[in-house]
Amino acid sequence: MTKNINVKLLPKDPGPAAWNRILPPATEYPQLNDDISADWVVVGGGFTGLAAARRLSQLVGDESIALLEASCLAEGPAGRN
User: Fold this and answer.
1) Closest CA relative to residue 10, chosen from 48, 43, 47
2) Which residues partner with 41 through β-bridges?
3) What is the chain's pLDDT, residue by residue, as a tens digit (81 residues)?
4) Exposed, middle or buried, 72 (CB in 10 Å: 0-12/13-18/19+)?
C-alpha cells in the first residue's frame, strides 16, 4: 500500500554555513517526484543520516538504500560546527 505524504512545513533554514560559501557549487541531486522502492530508507542527510547510509552500504551488500533530504546534504545545524 502506498501512502502519499505531503510535507508543508520545514524547519527554519538560516542559510548556508559560512565555510560552505568558500567551496565550489555542490552537485545537485535529483528531486524525488515519483514513487520509489528501497530496501532501506534513511531520512535526513545530516552527519548522522550520511553516516548511517554509508554504514548500511557496508553491511547490506546488494540491498538498495535511499537517502532522503529536504534541503542540502550536511547543511543543517550540525554542518555549521
Assistant:
1) 43
2) 66
3) 567 777 777 767 677 777 777 888 878 888 889 999 999 999 998 889 999 999 999 999 899 999 998 877 877 766 666
4) middle
Angle at 77 between CA 72 and CA 70, to 5 degrees: 30
Amino acid (1-letter code) at residue 32: L
Report whether 53 contacts 25 (CB < 8 A).
Answer: no
CB 66 within 8 A of CB 42: yes
Contact 69, 42 (CB under 8 A): no
Per the listing, cell 538498495 goes with 64
